[in-house]
């Protein structure tokens, strides 16, 4: 399977393949954060993750963040874009590269395809202990807020490399052309 076919298989949901609904689990201890993507992680979870990241980076005790994708069955480009934003902010605000754990070779291939090996430390072995983690509740969001977050996530992906710029250019242009509701 080519890298593009693998990426498509992980970001598209074929009707014949049931997947576990996506969830985001989070934990923090003394400024060290864990974010775990479980199941089929899609755009409907991006507002909650985006809000959580904003709070995390405002934490005066923030020291590090680890992203665990060992239980990820599928991940869409918006979720990848949110992760790209996480890495960019960690680098800009704190000067470090976050760690991402992925034991699924298909998921890891997608991560490398979009250039995550340049902006994350990718570990392909499972974590020994996770500690206590709790599910991140879904965030209520308007259609316009969701559109803005999807745009921001894809712009972050596009900023990683030229290949991503080409892959997501049309989607971003389409989203930018959509008129926000209630605009005069």
Molecular structure report:
There is one protein chain. The chain has a single domain (3-177), classed as 2-Layer Sandwich (Transcription Regulator spoIIAA), CATH 3.30.750.24. It has six helices and six strands; from the N terminus they run αββαβαβαββαα. The chain has helices at 3-11, 46-58, 77-94, 105-113, 143-158, 162-177; strands at residues 23-29, 32-41, 64-75, 99-101, 121-123, 134-135. Strands 5-4-3-2-1-6 form a six-stranded mixed sheet. Helix 1 (3-11) packs across helix 4, helix 3 (77-94) packs across helix 5 (143-158) and helix 5 runs antiparallel to helix 6.
Quick description:
The chain is an alpha/beta fold and 184 residues long.
For the record, the CATH architecture stands as 2-Layer Sandwich
Coarse structural class: alpha/beta
Helix count, per DSSP? 6
Strand fraction band?
15-25%
Domains (count): 1
CATH superfamily annotation: STAS domain
**SSE order:** HEEHEHEHEEHH
Average per-residue pLDDT, rounded, comes to: 85
**Large-scale geometry:** globular
Q: What is the first-to-last residue Cα distance?
A: 48 Å
Radius of gyration: 16 Å
List low-confidence stretches: none
Helix content: 40-55%
Largest sheet: 6 strands, mixed
> How many E-type strands?
6
CATH class: Alpha Beta
CATH topology: Transcription Regulator spoIIAA
């Amino acid at each position: 399977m080519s890298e593009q076919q693998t990426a498509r298989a992980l970001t598209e949901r074929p009707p014949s393949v049931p997947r576990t609904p996506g969830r985001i689990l989070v934990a923090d201890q003394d400024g060290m954060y864990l974010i775990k993507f479980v199941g089929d992680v899609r755009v409907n979870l991006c507002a909650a993750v985006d809000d959580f990241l904003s709070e995390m980076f405002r934490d005066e005790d923030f020291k590090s963040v680890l992203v665990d994708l060992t239980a990820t069955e599928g991940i869409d480009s918006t979720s990848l874009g949110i992760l790209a934003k996480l890495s960019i902010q960690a680098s800009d605000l704190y000067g470090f590269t976050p760690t991402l754990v992925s034991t699924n070779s298909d998921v890891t291939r997608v991560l490398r395809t979009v250039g995550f090996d340049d902006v994350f430390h990718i570990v392909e072995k499972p974590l020994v202990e996770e500690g206590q983690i709790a599910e991140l509740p879904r965030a209520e969001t308007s259609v316009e807020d969701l559109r803005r977050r999807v745009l921001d996530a894809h712009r972050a992906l596009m900023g990683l490399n030229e290949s991503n710029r080409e892959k997501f250019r049309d989607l971003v242009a389409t989203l930018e052309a959509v008129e926000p509701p209630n605009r005069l």
